[in-house]
Design goal:
By secondary structure, this protein is α/β, with parallel strands linked by helices. The protein has 16 helices and 5 strands. 55% of the residues lie in helices and 8% in strands. The protein has a 5-stranded parallel β-sheet with strand order 2-3-4-1-5, sandwiched between helices.
């Protein structure tokens, strides 16, 4: 019933039981990073409980399945959008047995919008089901969470994910697919973006150049590697760099690179990387994650990335 959704065994068992009993909850909250399967879970659930014309759900054209997301050119789901949805929710379904609202981005709603949503979650019409998707549980109001059945999307094991990805990318070998999954942290959507992007290999090579330069040549040489990158390029490069640095941290702490994404690069530079300062690696990983957030908040990309380079070159963790 939910076979298209990888891993998440407990969630699939509970959703299957609700479908078979014809007793879905009035509200669900699926939490996880972009590409973790939230949207897939929502669409499969909608498909199973809508009733008539359910094949239209997967085509995205069922009149009783409505997806709410930020309007074009906007960053947030507005209060007005939620109020319109709330009013529409009390109008009986056109074709299906239920009306289903997929709110794609609860983390993109301010408190006013979430409070407007709360009013319909507290007293929903009997035929309505609300499926909330959020990249972070922490960005959802506790009062909203309390009205939902909450599921955190699970990590997908590389072997399981690679078997699935093999059906999508038949020309790639299993080791390539496992590497992409490990690089994506078990996130299938992100793994697909890596596999479909020529940039991933370039970013991987740039990671090695940056770290080797930082540890041997100094700040100026290292900074030149990222100085010409655009905002979009840095947003693609920094997550890969964070993965590279995590591999180095594991190698430094445990001497184990069996499951490392960049094991070949680490072995090639083993003599240099044996001198790694573990605390510096941890600080640099956090700096990468912080830089991504700053860039997305329209802080100067060069300024945001500079801290990472300074740390890798042995500078202090400046805040």
């Amino acid at each position: 019933m939910f076979d298209a959704l990888l891993s998440n065994k407990k969630m699939k068992e509970q959703l299957t039981a609700a479908v078979k009993a014809d007793m879905p909850m009035h509200a669900y909250l699926f939490c996880g990073a972009a590409g973790s399967g939230k949207k897939t879970a929502a669409e499969l659930l909608a498909y199973e409980i809508i009733g008539a014309s359910r094949e239209k759900v997967l085509r995205g054209c069922h009149p009783d399945v409505v997806t709410i997301h930020p309007l074009e050119g906007k960053k947030l789901i507005s209060v007005d959008q939620i109020r319109e949805m709330r009013a529409d929710a009390f109008v009986r379904p056109n074709e299906g047995r239920r009306k289903i609202y997929i709110i794609d981005g609860v983390h993109l709603m301010n408190d006013a919008g979430q409070n407007a949503l709360l009013t319909v979650l507290e007293q929903p019409p009997s035929f309505a089901v609300f499926i909330l998707l959020s990249e972070s549980r922490q960005k959802v109001l506790p009062t909203v969470i309390s009205r939902c059945a909450v599921y955190d999307m699970e990590y997908v094991e590389p072997s399981c994910a690679a078997e699935y990805l093999k059906t999508v990318y038949p020309n790639k070998d299993l080791e390539q697919l496992k590497t992409a999954v490990r690089a994506a942290g078990g996130n299938i959507g992100l793994a697909k973006s890596f596999l479909g992007s020529e940039e991933f290999e370039k970013y991987s090579a740039d990671c090695e150049k940056l770290v080797v330069s930082a540890m041997s040549s100094g700040e100026y040489t290292a900074s030149r590697i990222i100085s010409g990158m655009s905002k979009d390029e840095l947003c693609g490069f920094l997550p890969v760099l964070a993965i590279y640095l995590r591999d180095l941290a594991v190698y430094s702490a445990m001497g184990n690179i069996d499951d490392a994404v960049f094991c070949d690069s680490i072995l090639k530079n083993k003599q240099l990387f044996d001198k790694i300062n573990l605390n510096l690696m941890y600080d640099s990983i956090r700096a990468c994650e912080s830089a991504i957030g700053l860039i997305n908040a329209n802080i100067s990309p060069a300024l945001a990335a500079a801290k990472v380079v300074i740390l890798l070159c042995g500078g202090k963790n400046i805040d």
